[in-house]
Amino acid sequence: MKCDREEPDSKLNELIINMKETKRNPGLKDICLGDKLIREFGFSLLEKLGTTDEQRKSDCDNIRTKLRSVARLLRKLNENKFVPQDLTCFIRPSEFNNVVAAVKTLYRESDSPQLGITLGHYIKQISLLKASIALEEEDERKKKEANEFQEMYAAHWNSRVACVANRTQRLRALNAPNSMPSTEDLVCLKNYVEQEMKLKMKVMKPSYEQYVQLAHLLIVRIAVFNKRRISEVDQLSITDFENRISGQDIGNNSEIINSLEFSERALLKR
Description:
By secondary structure, the protein is mostly helical. 67% of the residues lie in helices and 0% in strands. The protein is built from 12 helices and no strands. Helix 2 crosses helix 4. The radius of gyration is 28 Å and the shape is elongated.
C-alpha cells in the first residue's frame, strides 16, 4: 500500500509546490503540504485525471484552485483557535456550526456565493475521505465523527448555506443591468447585414476573404435574431409592478410609446 502511494505522492508534492503565493492569501502552500486530509483530497482529485496522456495543463491548475479554497477554509477555521488544528479536527459534529459559519464568512468576504456552493461540495467529499481513512486505520472514533458530520451535513447544509448562496446568485442575475440597444438601431443593423449578405452571396466564386466576411455577417445576423426575446415576466414581483414607469413618467422614451397599440396610447394619456 505504501509503494502504491509513492508516485502520486511525488506528483501531488510537485503540484502543490508550484502553487502561486499571493499577498492576500499567504501560506496556503504550506497548509496544503502539511495537512493529511487536504492531501487526501488532492490525491482523489489527481486520480480523476486518469493517465498522464489524457491530462491537460489546466487540470493541474484546477486542482490547485480547489486545494487553495480548502486551505483558506482551514485557515479561517483556525482563526479563533489557540493552537492551529488539522482539517480532520473540524470534520466532527461538534464543529459543524463553525464550518458553516466559516464558509458563509469566506464567500461573503470574497463576494462570491459560488464559493460557498463549491466549498459545500468539497466538504462533503472530504468528510467521506475522513471516513475512508478511518476504515483503513480501523479508527472507530474518527469513523463515528465523520459519519455523524455527514448526517448533520445532510440535514442542515442545504438550508443554511447552499440555498442562501443560490438565492443570492439568482437575485443578482435578475437585478443585473442588461444594456440593450434600441429597437431602431437593431432594425438598422439587421437591414444593413441582410443587404451585405445578399451582395456577398451573388459572388459565384468568392475569395477566402469574401467567404470569411460572409461568415461574419451570418454570425452577426444570428446574434441579432437571438436578441429578440421577451423578458421573464413570471419573475417580476409586485414591487416591480408598483415601481414601474407609467403615464407621463415615460417622457421621451419613444421606443416604449411606439410599441403600444392605438388604444393603449390613448389610455396612457389619461
